[in-house]
Input
Amino acid sequence: MNIDTKITPRLKMVADLVPCCTLVADIGTDHGYLPIYLVNRGICERAIAADVNEGPLSSAKKNIAETRVKDRIETILSDGLKKIENADCVTIAGMGGELIASILEHRKENMTRFVLQPQRSYDDLRRYLAQNGFEIKKEAVAKETDKMYCAFYAEYTGNAYEISTKEALLGKSELVEDKALYNEYVQYRKKEVEKALNQMEKAKATGERREELEKLLEIFSL
Ligand SMILES: C[S@@+](CC[C@H](N)C(=O)[O-])C[C@H]1O[C@@H](n2cnc3c(N)ncnc32)[C@H](O)[C@@H]1O
Output
């Protein structure tokens, strides 16, 4: 299998945030493309590909078996980090921010480096990280077909910190390398809110949700 053809811009963004390490654990691996790419590229010496469901895990096993790095990737059926004892970097991609936060609750003492890519509830995840002492050191954004995604690299320090609403929603621009793509991402998120507001206007909807969206639009325009 040529793994380079399987790595989409979203997964490439995640892989690019992973520091060189000995053992990476990819939680919710599904197809297993991320750990295959990381080991194949020499970014990580070995990997654990973990998933809570048998179906995705067997698809990962099948894909891993077709690679030259198959002996360096172990597959584990695990709910989040529960069965993972050791990893010097953990990746969790393609899930909601709340689910990612609940997985982080089972972090072991030796796990301090995390690459996280929430599909939604980015603000909830950034707030969880701030309240629970995970420092976000790097952020990235990616564009894939007509969608845009964000991801971040965080280190556990144990020191909680304050985070503003804007930072929770959009991250810190100074932590993103590609400023032009980040500006595009902010506009993309703003358009999402404008679209939802337009739909509410058409339906003549009022109430809390509309107020919430109007506040969001204000924050995105700052
Ligand atoms: C949408 S896929 C994302 C796959 C891959 N990480 C990616 O970003 O392309 C989500 C995967 O997470 C798995 N998953 C969901 N909850 C999980 C949990 N608590 N622990 C481990 N895996 C989980 C699902 O079975 C599914 O394979």
Strands lie at 21-27, 44-51, 73-77, 89-95, 113-118, 134-144, 147-156.
